[in-house]
Write a structure and sequence with these properties.
Elements lengths: L1 E3 L5 H10 L6 E5 L5 E5 L7 E5 L10 H17 L4 E6 L18 H11 L4 E5 L4 H7 L4 E4 L9 H4 L5 E5 L5 H15 L4 E5 L2 E3 L2 E3 L4 E3 L5 E9 L3 H12 L4 E9 L5 H4 L7 E5 L17 E4 L2 H14 L1
Parallel strand pairs: 1-4, 4-5, 5-6, 6-7, 8-9, 8-13, 13-14, 14-15, 15-16
Antiparallel strand pairs: 2-3, 9-12, 10-11
C-alpha cells in the first residue's frame, strides 16, 4: 500500500505509477486550533505500507508540522496491524544538523532518528542525505539515502556536450558525492572524466571560496554537484571560481532545490549555464516568470524510490 500525506503531490503520483499501484485513501481532519488527526480509510492489517511525505517547509506546512504528521500516521498504521511501514521522505528535515559545531549544540538528525524509531518505523528512504555516514549512523533502523546523480542520467546528453567533462564539488564536504558521479560517468562514457573541488569556508554564517579550485577543469563542461540548493550562493561562488579556473561551462546540479531567499536572482548569474534538480521538492518558490526557470531542468527521482521500495519488499 502507498499513502501520500501531501495533497496533490506530483512526486507521490509518479511513484505510484512507477510501482503500478493506486494511492491508498486516508482522512485528515484539522481542528480549529490547528491540531490534526490522520487515519487510513482502508484496512492495513498485514500490509506492507509506504507513507510518502517530503519534509521541506511549505507551501502549506512547516517541516515540524510535516514531521509530526508523518510520525503520527506511521504510528497509526502500526497500531492497526500493518506488517511493515516504510517512511518515504524525499527531503528529510533536520538532516543538516548532524554534528556539534558549537558548545551546547543539538544534534537534530539523531533526535529525528529517535522519533522515527519510537513510532515503529521499519525503514526510511530519503534522497541525498546531507552527510550519508552521519545519516546511517544516526538510525538503528534501515535508513537508505539514494544518490541524486542517478536521476540526472537521462539529462546528461542535454546538459553536457561531447567535449571534455568534469564533476566538481562546491565544498570539501561533498567530495565523495561528486567522486561517485564521476566514477559512474566514466563507466558509462568509457572515457576519462575530470574532477575538482572548490574550497568553501563558512564562519559566523558568512561564506567564502577565495576562488580556490583543486583540480583541472580547463575547457571542460563542469557538472557542479551538491546535495541541495538553498539561497544559491554556494553554487554561484563555486561556479565563479570554476570559470576563473578555465571551465568552459557550469551546470549546477543538486538533489533538492529549496530556492530560498533571493535564489532566483542569485542563480540567474551568467556563470551558471544550466541548472538541474530533482522533483524531491517542488520549485514553488521560484516565480513563474523568473529568468532562471529558462535554464532549469527537473529530473524525476521517483524511479529511484520505486527501485528501493521493491528491494525492501523483496527482502521481506
Amino acid at each position: 500500500m502507498l499513502f501520500s500525506l501531501e495533497p496533490g503531490s506530483a512526486f507521490a503520483a509518479a511513484l505510484a505509477s512507477e510501482l503500478g499501484v493506486e494511492i491508498a485513501a486516508h482522512e485528515e481532519r484539522r481542528f480549529a486550533d490547528e491540531e490534526c488527526k490522520l487515519r487510513p480509510l482502508v484496512d492495513v492489517g498485514g500490509a506492507d505500507a509506504c507513507v510518502v511525505l517530503g519534509l521541506h517547509g511549505g507551501p502549506l506546512d512547516s517541516p515540524h508540522d510535516k514531521l509530526w504528521r508523518l510520525l503520527a500516521f506511521v504510528a497509526t498504521l502500526r497500531d492497526h496491524g500493518a506488517r511493515r511501514v516504510t517512511a518515504v521522505a524525499p527531503y528529510l528535515a533536520y538532516a543538516r544538523k548532524d554534528r556539534r559545531t558549537k558548545p551546547h549544540d543539538p544534534i537534530g538528525l539523531r533526535y529525528v532518528a529517535q522519533l522515527f524509531e519510537a513510532v515503529g518505523t521499519d525503514a526510511l528512504i530519503v534522497l541525498e542525505a546531507h552527510n550519508v555516514a552521519a545519516f546511517e549512523n544516526a538510525f538503528r533502523l534501515p535508513a537508505i539515502s539514494l544518490e541524486a546523480h542517478h536521476a540526472f542520467g537521462p539529462l546528461i546528453a542535454e546538459l553536457a556536450n561531447d567535449g571534455p567533462l568534469a564533476v566538481a564539488s562546491p565544498d570539501p564536504g561533498g567530495v565523495k558525492r561528486a567522486q561517485l558521479w564521476r566514477e559512474a560517468l566514466e563507466e558509462r562514457r568509457g572515457a576519462p572524466v575530470g574532477f575538482a573541488m572548490v574550497d568553501k569556508r563558512r564562519s559566523a554564517g558568512v561564506m567564502s571560496t577565495r576562488g580556490l579550485v583543486a583540480g583541472d577543469v580547463a575547457g571542460a563542461t563542469v557538472l557542479l554537484l551538491d546535495d541541495l540548493i538553498g539561497s544559491g550562493e554556494t553554487m554561484r561562488q563555486a561556479a565563479l571560481a570554476l570559470r576563473g579556473a578555465g571551465a568552459a561551462s557550469i551546470v549546477a546540479c543538486a538533489g533538492h532545490g529549496l530556492f530560498i531567499d533571493q535564489a532566483a536572482e542569485v542563480l540567474a548569474d551568467e556563470a551558471i549555464a544550466r541548472l538541474a534538480v530533482t522533483d524531491s521538492v517542488p520549485a514553488f518558490r521560484l516565480p513563474p516568470d523568473a529568468p532562471v526557470r529558462g535554464k532549469l531542468r527537473i529530473a524525476s527521482c521517483a524511479p529511484l524510490f520505486a527501485q528501493a521500495i521493491r528491494r525492501l519488499h523483496a527482502a521481506g
